[in-house]
Amino acid sequence: MRRRGEDDDLVLTTAARAEQTVEVASTATKLFLALMAHDDRTRTLVTEVLPHAFPWVRFLPKEAVREFVVELVETLEAAESLRNPAPVAHLVAAWRNTASVYADPELLAVLRRDGSDAGAADEPPAEA
Fold it and tell me: Domain of 92?
């Protein structure tokens, strides 16, 4: 259902259906976390198959991919304990943005340049 203005769209569902969705995501997360804790081979396998789930990781350096896996597992565990997927979505978006920088050699070069800090930016003017 769409509302006027800049607010997010609303989705109508039953409370039972929403709870089922949360329960399925929670179950999948717990299973994934248990597999990751099982042994090193599982962690290695997850790192190897990650490009199938997140194709953009191919632009990240290998060490960054491993860092993403560690952060993803930690964030999944913490977010699942809150039953709140927002931290996971935020983490994935942040790493996707990082991969986007690595995918653009010109932008990466600009960001790697040594530069001086220009200081704090001025407050934008108030809207009329």
Answer: 15-112
